[in-house]
Amino acid sequence: MTQRSACWLALAALLISEASAQQFVYPSKGQTPQQQKSDEAACYSWAVKQSGFDPAKPPAPPPAAKPPTTATGTTPGAGARGAVRGAVVGEVAGGNASAGAAAGAMAARGQSRRQNVAAANSAQQQQSAATQQKQASFAKARAACLEGRGYTVK
Questions:
Q1: Beta-carbon neighbour count of residue 142 at 10 Å?
Q2: What integer pLDDT is reported at residue 17 of this predicted model?
Q3: Phi, psi (5° rounding) for residue 65?
Q4: Residues β-bridged to residue 151
Q5: Domain boundaries in the chain?
Q6: Considering the entire predicted model, what is its pTM?
């Protein structure tokens, strides 16, 4: 799971660097390169304060609350619950409760694994979306500041 988290962090960092690399600043009122550098630094700081997000220091994603799982990635008790259901179905349908219990346990464990993976993926997507939203807010604040100082930002 830590390798997956590292991949998401790398992806988030890539998206952040791409988003900030997409803003171009043009001095439309004859500002000198030194003045532009000073203005960009001031607007960067102002945008961090306004948005609460610093692209140079993206927050570490909070650890997702993990449901308790077994070593195989299933929720504890999933196999037992599936076995009970399978035994009932097996007994009613074919008179073989033990075969039904085995099939029910396998099916329940598989379903549990899929649900746990889906929940983890959903949490990671939400974290990524939140980071992208904060980055967009930062970029908008930075652009507003620079435009207020006489620059064209695209």
A1: 24
A2: 47
A3: -70, 115
A4: 27
A5: 2-153
A6: 0.56
